[in-house]
Amino acid sequence: MDSIGPPTSYLPPIGKIATASSAQLLDALLYLKFLYNPEVRGSRRIRPHLKPPRQYSEIDSRTLGGDLQLIRSDVFERSYAIRWLTALIGRIENLHHSVDSAQSNESLEPLKSMHSDVLIQQAASLLAICAGVAAAGTVQRVFSFESVYAGKIEVQVTDIPLENQDYGSVGAQTWGGACVLAEMIIEHPERFGLGDALSESNNYSRKSNLRILEFGAGTGLVGLTVGRLLTASPTRKNTRCTIVSTDFHPSVLENLQRNIETNVPESVSGCDDRPVTIVSQFLDWSSFCVMSPVPALLSQPFDVVLGADIIYEAEHAAWIKGCLKRLLRCHDPLTPSYTAAFHLVIPLRRTHSFESSTIEKVFRWEGHSVLGDGAELVILSKDSIFCEAHGDVRAGRGNEDIVEYVYYRIGWKNGH
User: Fold this and answer.
1) Element (H or E) spanning 25, and its range?
2) pTM of the full predicted structure?
3) What is the pLDDT of residues 214-252, one digit of tens each?
4) Is 149 helix (H, G, I), strand (E, B) or coil?
5) DSSP secondary structure string, 67-95?
6) First-to-last CA distance in the chain?
7) What integer is the mean pLDDT of 103-121?
8) pLDDT value at residue 342
9) How far apart are the C-alpha atoms of 31 and 35, rounded to whole Å?
10) To 5 degrees, how large is the angle CA 273–CA 278–CA 283?
């Protein structure tokens, strides 16, 4: 796909869908997915031992500039895409009817050569996305993960435009760090304190009431993914879990709550009998350490704290440390094998290199000398993650081919 235009000019004409080639139809669906359900930039991890799957065609949004957003926000073009997808699904259904009635129709031969069920599934998913979001600048995303514990997991979130380009509302959109952290949790939940909650054995006392907190939840992808994992796992037994997704900006919190309600419809009822509960909560890092009284949802410590792409001001690391002192569960002598931890994934951006460096200035490394005998939050481990930079590019993100992330695991110094 060398160039991109609006759906009315790019897609095969509706009247000629039945005679379009397999390559044309697949390319059209890829184009619509890119346009209305774009991949988040920097979310595709580079795995040296795996060869990335070959795409039908490659689109580089870096060359499209503002035209891409104009096309996405064009109501007429979105309406045409909906009609085109509806026509495609209708054609495939006609194919099924012709097969059932043993009728031969040469005009449908190109569709017969393809996996029609896969086409319908992809087209129906895109149709739901296009029909469900109409606001200019709004993007609905569907993330799919494969879990050895729970099988296929899907999370649907809506990104909304920044509020008057207010930097504080960046959480209204899904960023690569959240995608990376969510995928890491799905692949290795035991590394994030969720292994016992998913295991068939029931030998860990605290997992009967697991508490998970997310800082700067934004669209809620990470917390919702964890919730889906715990809910869908058939091995989870006698486990109750509370996930508190926090943020600061009002419009971000409103969108976060809507995303929770989309993925967890029963959350609207406020039922307390659900084994996994996901709720949104306002949290101001700068004042929480001196806040009194503390909101009820934050009044008890958490076993797992998560954060993705949340360090973009010089003060953030220090504020987060102050919050962790009140919110991260201390070492429990009754469960010596379990260590509560804060899992943080941040990108290394040239534009925010100083802000990123504050993590290792605010938190000491485990094993380094500490003044006094008091407890201290320390860095337990650090890993680098590299992702391809392809995907939806926002203004000011740059044109690098690789996005590097750092994953920190932070917890109380042994003995606390």
Assistant:
1) helix 22-36
2) 0.78
3) 999 999 999 999 999 999 887 665 678 999 999 999 999
4) coil
5) HHHHHHH-HHHHHHHHHHHHHHHHHHHHH
6) 57
7) 58
8) 98
9) 6
10) 130
* DSSP-derived 3-state class of residue 247: strand
In 133-283, which ranges are continuous DSSP H helix?
176-187, 195-198, 221-232, 250-263
> What pLDDT does residue 274 have?
77
Annotate 174-205 with three-state secondary structure: CCHHHHHHHHHHHHCHHHHCCHHHHCCCCCCH
Classify strands 241-247 and 210-215 as parallel, antiparallel or unpaired.
parallel
Amino acid identity at 121: Q
Nearest one of 38, 28, 39, 37 to 5, comparing CA atoms: 28
Provide the mean pLDDT of the chain.
81
Listing DSSP states for 361-401 in one string gives HHSEETTS--SSSS--EEEEEEEEEEEE--SBPPTTS---S
> What is residue 239's predicted lDDT score, i.e. its pLDDT?
72
262 touches 228 (CB < 8 A): no
- What is the predicted pLDDT for the residue at 42? 76
For residue 301, cis peptide bond before it (omega within 30 degrees of 0): no
Rounded distance between C-alpha atoms, residue 137 and residue 127, angstroms: 18
In this prediction, residue 49 has a pLDDT band, given cuts at 50, 70 and 90, of low
Give alpha helix (H) positions in 38-158.
67-73, 75-100, 109-112, 116-132
Question: Encoding tokens for residue 281?
Answer: 């909560």
